[in-house]
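Cont'd.
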Amino acid sequence: MNHQPATTQFATQDDGIAKGDVLLKVDNVSLAFGGVKAITNISFDVRKGEIRAIIGPNGAGKTSMLNVINGFYTPQEGTITFRGNERRAMKPHHAVRQGIARTFQNVALFKGMTTLENIMAGRSVHMTRNIGWQMLWRGPALAEEIEHREKVEEIIDFLEIEHIRRTPVGKLPYGLQKRVELGRALAMEPSLLLLDEPMAGMNLEEKEDMSRFIIDVNQQRGTTIALIEHDMGVVMDLSDRVVVLDYGKKIADGTPDAVKSDQAVIDAYLGVAH
Amino acid sequence: MAQAATSLDTFPKYLLLNADRFRDRPAMRHKDYGIWQSWTWAQQMDEVRAFAIGLETIGFSRGDKVAVVGANRPRLYWTFAAVQSLGGVPVPVYGDAVAEEMAYVLDHAGVRFAVVQDQEQVDKILSFRDQIPALTEVIYDEARGLRDYAREGLHDFKEIQAAGRALLSSDPERARLWEEGIRQGSGDEISVMLYTSGTTGRSKGVMIKASAAVNAASDTVAFDSLTEKDSVLAYLPLAWVGDHYLNYAQGYVAGFCMNCPESQQTVPQDLREIAPTFYFAPPRVFEGLLTSVTIRMEDAGRLKKWIFRHFIEVARKHGEAILEKRPVPLSGRLSYALGNLLLYGPLRNVLGLSNIRVAYTAGEAIGGDLFSFFRSLGINLKQLYGQTEAFLYVTAQKDGAVRADTVGPATPNVDIRISEDGEVLFRSPGQFSGYYKEDEKTAEVMTPDGFIKTGDAGFFDSDGQLKIIDRAKDVGRLRDGSLFAPKYIENMLKFFPNIKEAVAFGNGRDFATAFINIDLQAVGDWAERNNIAYASYQELAGHPDVYKMIARNVDETNRRLAKEPMMAGAQIRRFLILHKELDADDGELTRTQKVRRAFVDERYHDLIGALYDGSTEKYVETEVTYEDGRKGKIRATVKIEDAAVHEGAAQPAREAAA
């Protein structure tokens, strides 16, 4: 009888980059929709193992920046270097293959499917058997399914969502849906995890829980995280470095303390007397 | 068997026996990573042994005390047996205790080791570790979040076991010595120290001797004929006597399988998957189950609703009789069989109660209707009465002799006596050997001839079942000497859905009276259906039709009281419906919704006076506190009604009590 599942401590993809080295580099990127310049000439980097926050007032270009990183938008100018490979145009599913996973500002789960199924969906990128095997669902395909299920169960345990394993996510409260979405992103075992406003619409307790999970993901799994967040308290507590955008331009970049006392940041958030 | 019985006086001895006689039968299951992981008795012994030997490597010695803190997890249960096998004493502690309470218990018990579930508990202990120099080693079950902690004095359960296993494989003599140590263990040693929950003052450490614990468990295992084929879901608080007794003690003696849920929130699902044969839950759990069933039926289609109502009615008529094997007409049997197919079976299955052979409830009074509902579905639900000091059982109902308002006769080998002033005293095989380091308090609860005072007032009913009526200190007497037990009367009133709260008066008075709070939801619902308009609680409470309805409930209560010789004297002569709801914000209730009698006495002094001076109404002004903290006044003229007194079946209680 098997007591404990093989403790395949879930991990990030091994990308051959040492902790503290640059994982993602954004160089002079500009993005425009017709005449609207969403991002203008922005450069920054994300180092492996850190929590990097992208903040800024509404319309500053935060989500656009995230969409550029995961390949949803292709910037007109500039380059993005991920794990040493320079690229400009790319599809999101290529980004996933390369090890970038994300969550969305408005939860984007399969509402009719259960928590378990949603997180399993996150594993599909790692499933190697073809559709014929999958339909047969015997032998190697079944073995593969079991292996993936074990990883998913580790994530369910990690995020403490055992009690909603079989609940359709559409029925869940918002805070739990956010957690399931994080679970699905984790299931991809990304080396870079993009979180778009992970605490949006949560109450204080849910925010504290989510912060805890983000820190645990970062520390225990060593996953590099880039997150967008409105709640300044959360950002300052969680992140190692912060980049501040305003009207599509970068106005500050540094540790939370440095950014907090930066005059340009204060002006952007509080407004200046004209 | 007799020879075996003399030597089997500790739980580790049972562990060795079970690892032999039930070698391949499941002893423990735990749902982890979505799958029920399972250990046989032989494997369980291996786990316990590895941990015990591991403990020795970090300096455990005979007589050491070990705090066990956390939820129901196999490793924490193994800790009990491992510590006992080395002649130590496990001290289970409530995992939700705040740091200060926990520090008190750990310090008072003088623990040297603490085996805890996770980071939360480790953090708590580290926060007060400086104040407890005796506590040197902390062992955790779940490593999550603890990676970066200072290692000194902090160990992973797995590592301790690994150290134990390494020793066992390098030194084959070790296992034999360990078993030898168990065989030489004595039943006179303290098996476990259970701290009372401390609702009335500081918690006290109740010491239970190994032989007492084993004897008590053997008696109840025989009483309910539990065997190795039974199974339980271990979901009650680990530090509570009920969990330690029902799951650990009975489990080792009977050799049945203990199942640990995945988490506190998954208990209902885990219950459904395991479908235990033995089950315990306090009344509020059953109440919750019934409510969830009722709510879900409200949303069902018409056909399903009809089936539900029809067959619940059939069950109400015949269910309990069939369960108790009393004669039932053939037509009733057929309807019930059909209902079992269509409703009761599926319902039991959904509730996780399909395989129940024996279920118990205890802790507070359970409503007759609620109790009967579950019994009528074919669930053998019974009542027991017990205490930490008794190592749980004092009384328990026998199959087939079950009633909602009593707790059964004394369990085998238990002696019960009612003291002069009505307090229940007992002497039992499992009784404690004293409060740890508090001889004075031990002496307070012991009588010179070795009985233990329960602090509860009660009496034996005509059929020999014990009836608990109230806390002994609350029980008083009317001026004519009849017994007056306020809580007993209040509970009887509160079983009516229309009555939310009640306060009875009568100690030192001529007769008993009561304040009544209506249940705004139930009565409001009734008002809506009967086209009675009302604007506030106060208006509804004063409505003549509401008074009529409550008067019927009071009358029924009196009728029931009249049937009981001990209680017949304290029938309610006059009552009133309070113009406001009793509220914790106004200090009338405790935060756990219990009536604060002294406070209510003082605050409503005028109204109580009116209950006894014969007036039919009384004008009062009452100060109230709104939710935002502002104060206001409620003015009302409260009506007071008389209630008829019923002739009892027997003579009033005076003679019986005197």
